[in-house]
């Protein structure tokens, strides 16, 4: 109720101020749910975990029933509790299936690794044989929902998502492994999976399909040593293992998932600095604003450093080995693996279409986009609609936070305040935009190396067009960076150069370092944008030429569904990180 009141209040405020937002369309602003008091005061935080009455009162029973994902200054976008690993006895049948499912089973005492159910094409039959629509698992799911223990519910949702994706996509992966061709997935999800999954999804506020945060990544890790000392503490990559996996829990799939988890482990500091920056902006407190932006810049650097380790921890040539299992069943009319969608038996006779798991559903970059008002610069086109649709595939609390943040930053005028308060705040803003550029640029480099060089299939796991979606977003960031650097004047450089420059308790990043980095970022932005435009034009032309040589058949041009693929390139695709 409190959140609804706040949302209505700020939505009203957004509508009254939209006329002054030259770079924002009505649609961009009015669809952003937001937070404010009835008086219109902007100095109000979103409903963070630390603010929740049950937490303030120490009510353990009420806390246990809070959603698994409630954003906090301590854990950021990680779930409130580390994921449940050992499931209750009632779910031993489901757990056994998921343990035996993984293609490369753990090594035995002699080092031998058996082939799992998915490797033998036996998972679907095992589901039908071992799980019954009215079996013990179905009754136990109902009891868990009634009890409301969100820790258990989150783990159950993860497990039913893994079972669902494995069941639906097993034929797709099997065909690829045996023939080098993709084929259609199963079009009916059996009642013993469909009904519990839908009930759990409704209870938790998710789509009834595998998502990045709620199943594949952020509810799928275990920390071996709670006191581990590493760059990310107990969430350091070397201290984590997977709970569930499709292909190999010790190989590149582990790297792909756990690098994401390590990155997200820094988001407590990200959320804290974001909230403090908004508070300082509303109070027009320049020093506090600079301090919060400096912290924000430091944490984005940490996240980008962690992201860079993906190259060695999840090898590009391995991605096709598990990629088949994170496709979606949608978007409608675009997914040739599920041309008629999927019927959830016992739920609805209407086919369902859901986007696949994608790191694009992570909240790290959208936080920066919205706080820095980059989202306002996104063009009004289908690619931006896809970006906003991606933002619906995440926990409800994170959806609301991002929607609120977009509107709150707009009303507070974060960019205008940063660019007019001091040379230091202006420099920090430019370098924060540059961190978003670095993230999106690395994502694009991943895409080229893991996907484009290895497949002609150009639809990503989340259903976006690979050759257009990521470059569109990166291009917008580069334009914002160029504009912001143009606003950094000679006078700003002089002010920054003449300011007291000692690294003190108040300045962890010196003015000299800021000035050097701003200059480098500004010089790089324009050249990179022009190179990106040429690169994308060449890739699109190559795609068009390939299709024309095949008589204009788009699906043949993708090397998809029955068409031979070029073995040197592999049939993979990915949204990857961010």
Automatic annotation (TrEMBL):
Return the Basic and acidic residues bias intervals.
Answer: 554-569
Q: What one GO molecular function would you report for this record?
A: metal ion binding
For the ligand (heme b), the binding residues are 443
Task: Please list the GO biological process terms of this entry.
Answer: L-tryptophan catabolic process to kynurenine
Q: Classify the source by domain of life.
A: Eukaryota
Claim: NADP is one of the keywords in the record: no
- Pfam families tied to this protein: IDO
- Which InterPro entries does the annotation name? Indolamine_dOase, Trp/Indoleamine_2_3_dOase-like
Gene3D superfamilies listed in its UniProt record: 1.20.58.480
Q: Which residues cross the membrane?
A: none
Family in the record? Belongs to the indoleamine 2,3-dioxygenase family.
Name the record gives this protein = Uncharacterized protein
